[in-house]
Amino acid sequence: MAQSKANVEVETKAESSILEESPMRKRGEFNKLFSPFKIKDYLLRNRIIFAPMSTQMANADGSISDQMLDYYSDKAICGPAMVITETFHVDNEASRFTYVQPSIYHDRFIPGLSNLADGIRKGGSIAIAQIGHAGRQTNYEVNNHQPVAPSRIPDGPTKDCHELTKIEIDDLIRSFADAASRAAIAGFDGIEIHGGNGYLINEFLSPYTNRRNDEYGKNKELFLTRIINAISSRLDDNLILGVRIGFSDFVDGGLEPSEAIRLCSLLPQDKIDYFHTSAGTDESDDYRIQPIYHKRALLRNIARDLKREIQTPVILTGSINSPFLAEELLANEETDLIGMGRPLLADPTIPKKVAKLDAGEFCPCIRCNQGCLSRVRLGKTIKCSVNPQLGHERSKTSLVSMRPNKRNKTVLIAGAGPAGITAALRAKELGFAVKLFEKKEKVGGLLNTAKYEPLKQEMSDYLGYLTTLVSSSGVEIIRSTKVDFSLLREENPDILVNATGSVPIVPSIPKSLPYKVVEVRSILANLEDYFRKQKVVIIGGGSVGCELGYTLSSKCEDVTIVEQESDILLDIESGSALALRRLLEKAGIAIRLNAR
């Protein structure tokens, strides 16, 4: 679907200055980020909120697993003021959006929920339970029920859904209220109603999916209003009630930011303690969890406009993976609180490190969406491309006890790319004597090409983080030295780690050609030499070829991508592919499919 004309600022001069001066090389004070903030009777210790992320860590029946307890407890211990859980689904009919999702539709889940709330609170964070309903964005296989929606639109976004009757809507409102009551009994400090990301409440708010002729169609905020009133009547006055809103569908005919803000103003303000930003639907998936191809803090204008219209506190979430950017947003009064989901997966200790003015040492989220989004959608548990400990929080505590067993043993690592550096750091942490060999002068492997592409700021930050860390770790780094059998015989390590990486497959090229044939890494290492070319043809429409095409398109007259499959970008997750496809279309790059 085409992007709507939403009031979204893609980049400001202030943000540009932050990106130019990488967080990996800068330290500073964070007065706003670490100032307290009061919500009801709760005093937040800082402005950092752990934003909800689906994990697939629950037990198959929806109860809370030990792995899930460890995961959330670890997040709380690391210092955010508030931890908002992933979505608990509110009924046992059509409300799940993943196969393994934590449940809150029955009293039997309260004991596990209580353990979860206790774990978060013991870590020092305020515990908020997010509750929601999938609406149209699920399927029969997940729930063993037909999906439901405000309207059934033949040949439209809800063509496979059952249109909810008024009686069924009343039942759902009770389900939300019952779910909130269970969360309160379990010991959570508050509830967040999930009204974003294209799920059921968002569908009632949006003209794209709500075409009813009754009161719920004429007053699109009514369903959410009645949920808020029903929950508020059940909760003690001291419990927090937050609402997450999808402020733009980013589809033609969908909800626009100005209308979303107007609908928010019609909600019972005296019963809402904060609003939480989100955006996007199934059709605009790249706006829900924005990949590296989008600008940072994409929804900052929306948060700022919302604050101008409504006095209720605002949490801004979405690609805020730099504490310097977070501080700027707060200092400019564009938001009250900062939501960080993926950044606290990449490095849960960011709040603690930044509190100590140690911002140069945090591991940045590279917004690849491979472990946190793609895996979950495949039915796997959440992981992180730059944090191998995610999902293994309990095992982190055993590292110290393992160290004595490794004394005087040596590890030799061949290749100082990201895998080799990570292996070296872990081996050193475990107590090994480590030697890291790199055949080139620079460490970092293919990450070194990232600094030449405008899309890859986070990759460049990650390279800076790794090189800084390994340089100060005590790992012995031997550059410009290739690992071969004679070197291995000489070193005689106890363990060899092969981290030499991969090389691209290059077809045989005839020597007598009227044009130059160059492999992508050579271009990226000498990008200036290939600008201002008249015509460029790129063989391969995967992510590498498409990223290069976009990079060259601003400097070359004519760029064409040739792909032998029926579509491009089949090697990356769907949201990232959608975002990069938008950039290619905007750049006017020609694409030849089913061609060799």
Compact summary:
The chain has 596 residues and is an alpha/beta fold.
Written overview of the protein:
The chain has 596 residues and is α/β, with parallel strands linked by helices. The chain contains 21 helices and 19 strands. The chain has helices spanning 13-20, 66-77, 110-122, 140-143, 166-186, 200-205, 215-218, 222-234, 257-266, 300-309, 323-331, 343-346, 350-355, 370-377, 399-402, 418-429, 457-471, 485-491, 520-525, 543-553, 574-587; strands at residues 37-39, 42-44, 48-50, 82-89, 126-132, 148-149, 162-163, 190-195, 240-246, 274-278, 314-317, 337-340, 410-414, 433-437, 476-478, 495-498, 535-539, 558-562, 590-592. It has an 8-stranded parallel barrel, surrounded by 6 helices. The chain is globular. It starts with 12 loop residues before the first helix and ends with a strand.
How are the SSEs ordered, and which strands pair?
Blueprint: H1 13-20, E1 37-39, E2 42-44, E3 48-50, H2 66-77, E4 82-89, H3 110-122, E5 126-132, H4 140-143, E6 148-149, E7 162-163, H5 166-186, E8 190-195, H6 200-205, H7 215-218, H8 222-234, E9 240-246, H9 257-266, E10 274-278, H10 300-309, E11 314-317, H11 323-331, E12 337-340, H12 343-346, H13 350-355, H14 370-377, H15 399-402, E13 410-414, H16 418-429, E14 433-437, H17 457-471, E15 476-478, H18 485-491, E16 495-498, H19 520-525, E17 535-539, H20 543-553, E18 558-562, H21 574-587, E19 590-592
Parallel strand pairs: 3-4, 3-12, 4-5, 5-8, 6-7, 8-9, 9-10, 10-11, 11-12, 13-14, 13-16, 14-15, 17-18, 18-19
Antiparallel strand pairs: 1-2
